Structures are given as C-alpha cells and as structure tokens.
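Data availability (excerpt). The following record was deposited with the supplementary files.
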Amino acid sequence: MSQQEGYSPSFKRPAEIMRMRRKRARSDAGVFSSPSGQGSSGSPGQSSSSPASLRPFSPGPLFNAQQRSGGGIKRRNPFANIENTFSPKKKLLIYNDGSAEPAESHGKAALKEGDWHFSEKLTEAEKRESEHIPSEKCQTFSEDDSLFEEEEEDVLRPLLKSPQAIAPASIAPPVCTEYPADWSLKTRVLFTSPLSLSWAEHPKAQEEALGLSQHCRSQFTTLPHSLQDPKSSSELRCAFQQSLAYWQHPSVSWLSLFPRINAERSFTGKSTPWAQDAALQQSLMREWSVSLSSLYSLLKSRLCPYFYLCSYQFTVLFRAAGLGGNGSITALISPTTRGLREAMKSEGIEFSLPLVEEKKKGREQQNSGADHGEEDEGEHKEKEHHRTPSEDDVDGDDECTEDEECSFSWLKEMGVQDKIKKPDGITIKLRKDSHTVSLDHKPESVVCVEGSHTFTLINFLINCKSMVAAAGSQAGLPPTLLSPVAFRGATMHTLKSRSVNVKSQVGSTYQNISSLEVTGPILPSSLHAITTLLRPAQKGNFSAALYAHVPTAVMNVHAKQFTNGTADLSACGLHPSSVQQLQQPSGLGKSALTHINMNNYSYTWKN
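Predicted structure:
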C-alpha cells in the first residue's frame, strides 16, 4: 500500500514490523560481534552488563554504532516515542538525509524507516561556526531506559540560549537605598523588626552624655555595614541618643508644647500663670522674638538647615537655600485663612498657592489646544508669569471679572430685564468671597513664600497679634519653635523611646517581633538618623509605621524650582547623608509617608 500524505512513521503495519525486526537482527549480528569475530549470543530482548551500543527509539539506527563494541543489546522502551522523549537540544543532532534542516514532528511530514541519523555532511559555514564543538558526544543511557543524558550538554548551551530564554527571576530587583524626603512633623513612629531592638533602651550614663555631646558638636560616628551584636556596641547606643535630641523654645516642664493645633485638651487643668498677667506675656514674647530672629540668622548663614514655628492656628516651615530642590530660602504655611492671607498682602509679602496653581494649570492644559494658537498661549503664559496670584484666582472657571459680573446687557437683548431681579454689589462680593473662604483650613490653602520675602514674613510673625491666642487654654503662650540645632534661648529635649518584645501571628504560628516606639516632635532629620542606625543594627530588615501631624502633611508640596546650583550645607549640623536626602525635591505631593519597610537593605514605602 502506497504511503499516504500525513502518514506517521510511529505506526507500522504488522508486515512492516516483522520486516524491521529481521533487518535489525541482521544488522545487530554484525555490529555486536565479539573481537574474535563471533556474534552475540544474547537475544534482542536481553542485555549484557556493559552494552556496547545504544539503540534509539524506533524507527532509527544505532547511535555511534561504529565506535562501540561488546555484546548484548539494551532493551528498547516500547512506550517511547521520538517526538515526546527527545529534547529540543537533542533534536538539533538529528537530520534528514536530503537536507540540513532539523527533522520536524511526525505530523508534518512522512519519514521512511532509516531516515533518522546523524548528519555528517555540514556546510563550510556550519563547520566554521561549530569548530569549538566536539565532533563526537559521549552519551550514556539513563536508569529508566527512556532518556539519553549528554555528558557535555553545556557545550551546546551558548548556541541554544536566546534573550527570550532568560528567566525573569535571573534579573535582580533594583535596590533602593533611600526613601523620599518627608517634611511633615511626626508625632509617633513605631519600628518593628524580627531581630531584638532592646539595644535602644536603658543607655548607660556615659553613653547618654557622649551622645548629647556629639549632637552639640555635630560629630558623627561611622558604623559598619552590619553589626553582629548591637547590644554590646557602645557606638551604636551613643549615636541613637544623639539622633533623639532636638531644640525647643519656649520650654515649660509641666506642659507639652507640641502639637499646638487642636491641643486644648492637653492644656486644660494645667497651671498657666501668664494667662492673666500682661507683663509676663510681654516678657515671653520678647524672648520668643529674640529666639526667632536667631533662628532666621542661622538659617540665612546655612548653619541651621530648617526649623518649624507651631502656633495654635497654623504651622510654618522655614528651609535653608538648597533644601527641597530650591535655590533660595523658602517658607511654607499651612493651614491658612483668608484673613491671614489678606494681612500678608497688606504687609507686601508676595506668596503663591502651589496646590491651587497646580490645579489651575492642569485645567488650562485640558482646555487649551484647538481653541488657542501658539501665539495666544505664549501671550497668556507671559501674562500669568508677571501677574501676582490673587484670591480671585482660587476657583478658576467659576469666577469672572467685575465687569463680567456686573454686565447684564444680555438681559436687555432678551427683553426680560424688568422681570429678573439684578443682584446688588454686596451679593456679588459675597459670592466672590465664598470661593476664597472655602479654602480656609484645607490642604489647598498652603502658602509658599520665597527669597527675600521670608525676611518680611519673619517681621510679620513677630508683630502679628493673632500669633498668640487671646482666650482659651493657650492664651498668652507664644508659638513653639523646633529646630535640629541649637539657637538662642532654646532648650535641649530628647524624644521618648520604648522597646517592647511581642508575639505576632503569622499564618498559623506566632513569631517573636521586637518593637521600638518613638514619640514626640520627630523632625525629618531625626527620622532619617534613626533609620540609618537601624539598617546595620537590624541587618537591613525592619519596618516603621509613621503617624504625621496632619496640618504638616501638605508641606511636601513642590515650590518653584531654581537652577542656580546646590548650596553648601556641610556646616548645618546634620549628617551628610541626611543633608543629601533633604536636598532632593520630595515626590510625595500633599501627602506624607505612612509606612517604611526595609527588606534586605532595600527600601519600600507607602504614603
């Protein structure tokens, strides 16, 4: 019967099988002959202890039959199939008689018996490419009589590997050695680690004194990449005490002066002798003014990197030139009210509303395009650049100029001017003011002051009567000043730390977790200093839950960027790594970090 198209060589008729067996018996008699010329005495179904040659799965001749000698035949696996047992690497060694292309599967072309063998005829180009590959491969039979194992498989590996064959797991994830700068004040940070954090508690008197001395002198200790026994490391404990120190004015031992916004409960029932004493209030304000002036002088000289002013209504962050990606001194105020912004305008203080301007810019980009040409856009941007932001620009599309608001000529065109009551001037003004007042006490009300206007802002804050509460539990008490370095009239304070070992449920088991709780006004540089110490002490594995003072979360917003280079802050009193982190613009927007996790010395975070 003639061979039909699509016929598979793996399926044979009984007559063909018998013909194949007779042919194999004749070929085996000559191949497996002993050195003396006698044939093998074993039957086809038997095998000797050391087979001389290996037969592939039917159909096909013996592999390397000419170079093997000995008696006996390895029994063929009757369930084996060439197509489902040969690996792609071994298929490359099997060629068709008439071409150099690899043999395809039995479903693509019909192959006759004896068509599968090693091709010894290679083109000149193939020989040149395969000069480094041995012409003979030593092969052994596996124990299950079904697979061939190549001893020198790594020789073909460079030829068979492709870019697509590289596993994604072989590409190591990027290592993030730093988290973004967070300018918000923290009230509480909870560190957890699988390793013990008991080294952070109960410092010796000498270690505490040395840590405070290093803080005052701006001396920093370099720790190794990993500490084997953190509890016995005196340098680590001294550096931890150094990272907890900060400076504050005023300082009242029986009152906690941070936070000040919505803190009436912490002042209730406490002794406030200045509340009804005007002379005492004036004395406190004089000392406070001297301290604020001292801080600004240090900031201008780049001897102080930043400081906070916390009043009962708002918080002000002053940053030195070079921090946050800015080339000049900047001040961020949050939250603000319309009254405060109007008072700043009357004093000649120029400021911007970063979030409002960002929202308006995004709205303009969406509306621009086909309606405006390139020239109109250039003129519009030039006008916006030279125009000082006003309160009328707060809500963009919902507001108009006074002429547009008071023009009712369209009523006459419709003939209904007598039927509709026109709004008076007071109603129009109240409508305008409603959009401005709607920003009060919201994150969008954050104000940014830059350059020389920050000095005017300092004078404004000193002389502003609304800085001090006139009534209530905080009446007569000046705002709190917080700084990472010493200034005139300041008192050194330390953050409170407490270490506890707890058991946490992980799946169905409980795992020992060590925790370290730090409370107080945690400055950005203090947080970075503590995480820098935890990296070698905990061998690069710890996590932190951050609790930010809500009014200061928006202080990560971008101000105007300058391109006049980075200022020298080497003498500002912070660790060089902390300065390097705070110099970068924060990418957190109007949010603050909530979680920091370090795994295998690589940071991840959430905000």
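Summary of structural features: The radius of gyration is 41 Å.
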